[in-house]
Design goal:
Radius of gyration: 36 Å
Shape: rod-shaped
Order of helices and strands: HHH
Number of helices: 3
Distance between the termini: 135 Å
Structural class: mainly alpha
Helix content: over 70%
């Protein structure tokens, strides 16, 4: 005698197979959606990193130019030969031009108000420090004159 599958067993097999297929399809769909989202996030992150790297490079160039310009200014003060002073003065002016060019490249890239404020404050702080140094250097001279005039 042959056993035939009964109706409830085949229905159960069909239900389990359909459920398993549905679960596999949902997992595949979720994987595809997740990969697309990750690709979009990766593209946005790449764009942000590229822009920020350019901003950082330009900011570092500006800092280096300012440092070189300060060294050049100090060199001019201690030089004795007029031709060397003139050459160093021309280098000093070139540093100023390079700074302005770099700054002009950076300004359009600054989109956030915080970034613009940092650039503005950085320049303001530098001016204040320079003024404080200049005033600080004058104070001892005034004291020395006062002491010499009193004594």
């Amino acid at each position: 005698m042959k056993l035939r599958p009964t109706l409830p067993t085949s229905r159960l097999t069909l239900t389990v197979a359909a459920g398993f297929s549905l679960a596999l399809m949902l997992m595949a769909t979720l994987t595809i959606v997740g990969l697309r989202e990750m690709a979009e996030i990766n593209d946005r992150l790449e764009a942000i990193v590229k822009v920020n790297n350019v901003k950082m490079r330009l900011a570092n160039e500006m800092r280096d130019i300012l440092r070189d310009r300060a060294i050049s200014m100090l060199s001019i003060v201690v030089m004795n030969d007029d031709f060397d002073k003139d050459e160093e003065l021309m280098r000093f002016y070139r540093y100023g031009s390079a700074y302005q060019e770099t700054r002009q490249q950076l300004l359009p890239m600054l989109t956030l108000p915080e970034e613009k404020a940092v650039l503005k404050e950085g320049l303001h702080d530098r001016r204040e420090r320079t003024e404080r140094k200049a005033h600080g250097a004058q104070r001892p001279r005034k004291r020395a004159k006062r002491v010499s005039s009193e004594g």
